[in-house]
């Protein structure tokens, strides 16, 4: 199978990870053996394998979505392909990728690897951190994206930053084209489309940090 990363990309990642990745990152990858049920599982695993070849600090664990029911239940994995990240202390960063992180979303994956290697150290304002402390309820953010959307990584990374900072949050990237039934369920017609708590609230667009957290607060706190 032909390489997905160009030699130039590989060299860039080797240099970036040498400078920025501070500790080991464990990636759990959930796949399905039946290609008809998971068209992009094989390509997603190839992306992860090639990524791991650029640094010895990325470790990949491959799990079967259909047969490893206990693990799927433990991490509440709803579909495959699915990517989870854990820091050097084996802490779940509470970020999920459902679907192949290709196109513009590859940059999200890279930024998440770096942040995870720093034990979830991300740049959020004091105002956002204060609002996060007020939220005690579980919050699930699903960010529907497509690989060709240049604005989607901003929304994905914001959801993931919130999840890294708050134990009450889960931040999920969902590749809209790979999961058409889910996209149809939430009437996703443009991206990024953010669904809060399985439909309790929603908004569209890569909003600035303060507007993003305010949208979340308006749903979970009734503000």
Describe the structure.
It is a single chain. The protein folds into 2 domains: 111 residues, Glutaredoxin, CATH 3.40.30; 95 residues, Glutaredoxin (3-Layer(aba) Sandwich), CATH 3.40.30. It is built from 8 helices and 8 strands, in the order H-E-H-E-H-E-E-H-H-E-H-E-H-E-E-H. An 8-stranded mixed beta sheet has the order 2-1-3-4-6-5-7-8, with helices on one face. Helix 4 packs parallel to helix 6. It is globular, with a radius of gyration of 17 Å. The relative contact order is 0.13. The model has no long low-confidence stretch (mean pLDDT 96). This is Glutaredoxin. Pfam families: Thioredoxin_3 (PF13192). It comes from Mesoaciditoga lauensis.
Summarize the structure.
With 223 residues, this protein is an alpha/beta fold. The protein has helices at 7-20, 41-52, 69-74, 105-117, 126-134, 152-165, 180-185, 209-220, and strands spanning 25-31, 58-64, 82-86, 92-98, 139-145, 169-175, 193-196, 201-204.
